[in-house]
Design brief:
The protein is an alpha/beta fold. The chain has helices at residues 13-24, 31-41, 44-53, 61-72, 75-80, 91-102, 118-132, 139-153, 155-162, 175-190; strands at residues 3-7, 27-30, 82-85, 110-115, 166-170. Bound molecules: BIS(adenosine)-5'-pentaphosphate (AP5) and magnesium ion.
Amino acid sequence: MNIAIFGAPGSGKGTQSAKLIDEYGLYHISTGELLRDHIKRGTELGRTADEFISKGQLIPDDLMIRILDDVLDSEAAAKNGVVLDGFPRTIAQAEALEELFRKRGTELHAVIGLEVPEEELVDRMIKRGQETGRADDNIDTIKTRLDVYHSQTMPLRDYYLKENKYIPVNGIGIVDEIFDDIAAGLEQATGVRRRAKKR
Ligand code: AP5
Ligand code: MG
């Protein structure tokens, strides 16, 4: 099963991805984390990525698509399927993704859309910025990230609605309860059931 987790900055993509990989044995691909790791290691890609991330802008599509192509080649990604966290973020990326999966004989099965109001997103990111020092969690960059989300990423919601792959989930509330809704939506859309509840 290949899933994308979709939503605005701060909507809980990373938080819910951790639960998805645990529950379904999927491989987590967070393009944001991958780029931040390159920045930390000071690689050439990291230097390029930093110029965009620090301003809240997206990395150019062709570069991002090439990176994803490489990651999908890894053995772990090929095994049970993936959770894409932060990709696709533009229509061009969505179209490229279709081709990347097609040439591997698979497809994107579902897109989980975490829906969270803007005030809550800002509060979460400001708080995380204070707690962890994540460089793009400052008010100016947050505003740009939200603008970029609305103009470049939000159109994907309609794109996947039309493809009948979009599963809207209320992203406000207790993390485990949000995950229950995700699991129920996935079962309905794909027939894949979660493991027996531990709680
Ligand atoms: P990326 O790393 O993807 O960041 P983002 O989309 O801005 O999202 P975040 O990671 O900030 O939030 P999240 O949705 O993962 O939420 P989280 O679980 O952390 O991208 C960063 C940058 O990289 C981009 O701006 C771009 O420059 C570049 N980039 C990445 N992918 C790209 C691509 N495909 N193309 C081009 N450029 C790309 O939760 C947020 C906070 O809220 C946490 O502190 C968490 O603990 C808390 N929280 C989570 N759930 C709840 C809840 N239910 N209640 C209360 N608090 C909660
Ligand atoms: Mg994240």
